[in-house]
């Protein structure tokens, strides 16, 4: 089975076809052999492709990567369930929720390290709003979807939050939502 992604519009950059095709080939191999250790859901989430002229349409590739991540996450959770039982899934969820809540319970504007006044980082106000939404979800079950978290875009602000810390936090939130969706 082969599949080619459509290319971006003429004046818009797209993802490097060589990089996307190479990653998809590795993911297909992983998909065909569940015992292989080639690609994990975390690998899919962390994969970035270079932008080039004549590249693949970014929106379509991003959507395909999200579906691939969801599929691998479901398989990984199911494998953990078979190996360790339901309590291993509950324990994993509790541990990741503790990490997430450790951040969401911090005071506004102090949830992550700041970049200082000379550098730009993610808008503290926008990140704090997301943290509060996540906290409502964890405490009272307020609705939040994977796309709410995956597709969020923060403005760059001087003195904002360090991007790598916020990105790692979002990865943990995605993990929580994957586990919740597969319970």
Helix content: 55-70%
Low-confidence stretches: none
Report the sheet-strand fraction. 5-15%
Strand order of the largest sheet: 1-2
Tell me the major beta sheet.
2 strands, antiparallel
Specify the oligomeric state: single chain
Overall form: flat
The helix/strand class is mainly alpha
Q: Give the helix tally.
A: 7
In angstroms, what is the radius of gyration?
A: 18 Å
Q: How many independent structural domains?
A: 2
Strands, total number? 4
Mean pLDDT: 95
Termini separation comes to 31 Å
Order of helices and strands: EHHEHHEHHEH
Describe this structure in a few short sentences.
By secondary structure, this protein is mainly alpha-helical.
Give your account of this protein's structure.
With 183 residues, this protein is mostly helical. It folds into two domains: 13-81; 86-181. It is built from seven helices and four strands; from the N terminus they run E-H-H-E-H-H-E-H-H-E-H. The protein has helices spanning 17-32, 41-46, 58-84, 86-104, 124-140, 146-150, 163-181, and strands spanning 13-15, 51-53, 120-122, 156-158. The strands form two sheets. The protein has a two-stranded antiparallel ribbon. It starts with 12 loop residues before the first strand and ends with a helix. The mean pLDDT is 95.
């Amino acid at each position: 089975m082969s599949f080619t992604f459509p290319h971006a519009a003429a004046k818009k950059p797209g993802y490097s076809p060589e990089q996307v095709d190479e990653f998809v080939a590795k993911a297909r191999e992983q998909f065909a052999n569940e015992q292989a250790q080639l690609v994990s859901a975390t690998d899919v989430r962390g994969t970035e492709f270079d932008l080039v002229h004549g590249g693949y349409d970014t929106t379509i590739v991003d959507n395909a990567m999200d579906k691939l991540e969801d599929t691998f996450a479901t398989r990984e959770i199911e494998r953990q369930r078979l190996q360790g039982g339901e309590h291993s899934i509950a324990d994993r969820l509790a541990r990741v929720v503790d990490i997430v809540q450790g951040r969401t319970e911090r005071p506004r504007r102090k949830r992550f390290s700041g970049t200082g006044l000379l550098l730009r980082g993610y808008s503290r106000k926008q990140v704090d709003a997301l943290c509060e939404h996540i906290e409502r979800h964890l405490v009272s079950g307020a609705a939040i979807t994977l796309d709410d978290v995956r597709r969020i875009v923060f403005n760059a602000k001087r003195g904002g939050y360090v991007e790598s810390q916020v990105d790692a936090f979002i990865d943990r939130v995605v993990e929580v939502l994957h586990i919740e969706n597969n319970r």
